[in-house]
Design goal:
Length: 132
Amino acid sequence: MKMSYFETKKGRIELIPMIDVMFFLLIFFMILTLRMIPDQGLGLALPQASRAKTLPRPQVLISLTANGAIHVQGQVVRRAALAQLLARKAGGRRPDVTIAASKALPFQDFVAVMNIARKAGVANIGIAAHRS
């Protein structure tokens, strides 16, 4: 049976390409949302520096309070467990770390944490400060 010129076929909506596009959009917005969630930090009185520059977002943020407590992404951590935690967070890679220390923290405590991070194989250490 031949179709004449005036006979039309019914249009069909292809669902598989539409499902592919919807999954792509879902994954895109999930990744975008995860990038927008900031790390929880502490209210520290950071030192000021006139030459401070903005660094890329670190993989690990270490906050040091005036009383010497170490906070890593919302968890209080002891010095002995810090190296193990950094090694776990790295997952075989050399992580980038930013240390935010209170002004009132003794310098020796700050250096001790930097030393622990270096021994754990941290690639880059950034020091948080406010621009003056």
